[in-house]
Amino acid sequence: MINQVLLVIYVIGIISLSLKLRQGTFSGFVISDRQVMYPAVIGIAYMAAYFSAASFLGGGGFGLVAGLPWVIWAVFFHVAFACLAFLIAPKIWAMAQHYDARTVPQLLERRYNSQKGKVLLAGIMLVMYTVYLVAIFKGCGNLFQGLLGVTYVQGLIITVGIVALYYVIGGLPAIIWISFLQGLIMLVGSMLLYGGLISSGQGTMIWNNIPDAVLNMGGNTVPWQKSFGNAFAISLGLLALPDLLIMIFSARDKRVVRFAGIYGPISVAIYALCIFSLGILAYGVFTSEELAPFIANPDGLVPFLATSLLPSGFDGIVLLAAISAAMSTMSAIVLVTTTALTSDILKFLSPATPDDRVLVMTRITGVMIIIVAAFFAVDVPQMIVPLVSASMGVIACCVFIPLMFGLYWDRGTSTGFVASLIASFGSVVLWQYYGNPLIHTVFIGLICGTVAYIGGSLFSAQPLPSDMRKE
Fold first, then answer.
1. How far apart are CA 169 and CA 219, in angstroms?
2. Annotated Gene Ontology MF terms (predicted)?
3. What's the pTM value of the predicted model, to 2 decimals?
4. CB 190 within 8 Å of CB 274
5. Dihedral (C-alpha) 186, 192, 194, 196: value to the nearest 10 degrees?
6. Residues with Cβ < 8 Å from 281, sequence gap 6 or more?
7. Which DSSP string do the residues of 191-219 spell out, in sequence order?
8. Does a structural domain hold residue 441?
9. Which of 64, 341, 404, 431 could link 444 by a cystine bridge, Cβ 3.0 to 4.6 Å?
10. Domain hosting residue 47, numbered range
């Protein structure tokens, strides 16, 4: 009963805050009119929007089958890429300000003077982000099933209702502020789970009870190469996912972005260490018979840990933490996905469409995408981590290459931009079906996309010199 009460209070709270921060203009809805002035809000919201329920459930449980390599590589890459992301964030903010860009496809379109590239990238985002949403919905369904005692489908329906209300009312200002509060809840929830395992395992003695096979850097039942690839592909998103980049766009000035670089990496480090360690630490507390059901379905481990280790009420905080992880990510993803469809594709097809009409369509389309993703989540046979890794990897590759080269290499052209999108997306899809499964598709996408970008740029007309280096 306590969990249900906490959930109701939580939902009322975020809906109330969304109403208070409701925006009436398209610019306010998608980039908060570039008026966010608190570094801690952007830094922690960045962390919350990045780590979804897929990380809370899938990332926490994946260590059960992948062993110590998953923990080492996941924590290392997440912390390293978070630090790198905020080192280059001021330059990304300056670039967005320079081109007056409200979406990532729009930013790259104006950098490369390429409407074709913008529409192609928006289409890729629409497809792959919908796949990513399916993975998050799967996590939410498992979560409500484990902690509220409802069926998986009922959990999906609850999730749709909350996310749809949250998204339609909110816009980016509400998303950022609520993600900041959700990020704080996520940190508390992850530390409660981590602390509960350590306490039950008698502190450092817990490591003596963990089987050697789990602590072997060769991997447990999952080869270390797959853990390495999954961790790299997922954490690369910290540098290039559009739902994170729009938070940088929303900052009032460069100072806000620079100081957000303190709060972002620290919160990422705390959360990643606590969550990604849960799978291997569980071996030090529970018997192999107790953990056996979760070997086949690692995504159910975290709800089991919450109800088994924590007293009544505290497991409700973990519930809110996992819901927070889902809500913060879903709302940001739905926002950038729908703006990719309405602002980037619709405005390309019908440039005369007024912004107020685009705003209405953005809200309606967002709800439709939420319903479609939930429908496909009814039957998802894969574990969350590989599904998230594949979808995030495609988006990260397609954005990372033209964004990074666009910041630091003036010779990049529209031809190079479009070629990199086609090469990245095409190579990732082909490798997924025909490549070596021990080599993650994101590495292939990065290599092919980079070669195509450089080759396409060098063999096409040189653009006018850019002044972005001076920003």
1. 45
2. symporter activity
3. 0.83
4. yes
5. -160
6. 194, 197, 198, 201, 206, 210
7. HHHHHHHHHHTTGGGGGGGS-HHHH-TT-
8. no
9. 431
10. 2-381
Domain contains 395: no
Secondary structure (3-state) at 36:
strand
Q: What is the pLDDT of residue 370?
A: 86
Gap between the Cα atoms of 445 and 429, Å rounded: 9
Residue that the structure tokens 């919201």 belong to: 45
Q: Which residue has the higher pLDDT, 432 or 197?
A: 197
Q: Which residues contact 58 (CB under 8 A, 6 or more apart)?
A: 135, 139, 298, 299, 383, 384, 385, 388
Total domains present in the chain = 1
In degrees and rounded to multiples of 5, residue 51 shows phi and psi of: -85, 110
Q: Which two tokens stand for residue 256?
A: 């806000």
Q: Tell me how far apart the alpha carbons of residues 146 and 248 are, in angstroms, rounded to a whole number.
A: 35
pLDDT at 400: 93
8-state DSSP, 21 = T
The pair of three-digit structure tokens given for residue 59, joined into one six-digit string: 């990332």
Closest to 417 in 3D by CA, of 407, 406, 425 = 406
Nearest alpha-carbon partner for 69 in 270, 220, 283, 286: 220
Question: Can you give the CATH number for the domain in which 351 is found?
Answer: 1.20.1730.10
Residue pair 30/332 in contact (Cβ under 8 Å)? The answer is: no
At residue 311, what is the residue type?
Answer: P
Residue 457 lies in a domain: no
Beta bridge partners of 251: 36
For residue 462, the model assigns a pLDDT of 67
∠ Cα 364 377 345 (to 5°): 35
pLDDT tens sequence across 331-389: 788 888 888 778 777 777 777 777 778 778 888 888 888 888 888 888 765 555 556 66
Q: What pLDDT digit, counting tens, does each position of 268-315 carry? A: 999 999 999 999 999 999 988 888 888 887 877 887 888 888 877 777
DSSP structure string for 127-150: HHHHHHHHHHHHHHHHHHHHHH--
Residue 235 and residue 239: Cα distance in Å, rounded? 8
Strand extents, DSSP E, 279-337: none
The residue whose two tokens read 């996310």 is 163
Q: Which two tokens stand for residue 244?
A: 């994170």
- Provide the token pair at 461: 């007309």
Q: Which residues lie below 8 Å from residue 360, measured CB to CB, with a gap of 6+?
A: none
On the CB side of 299, how many CA atoms lie within 13 Å of its CA?
Answer: 27
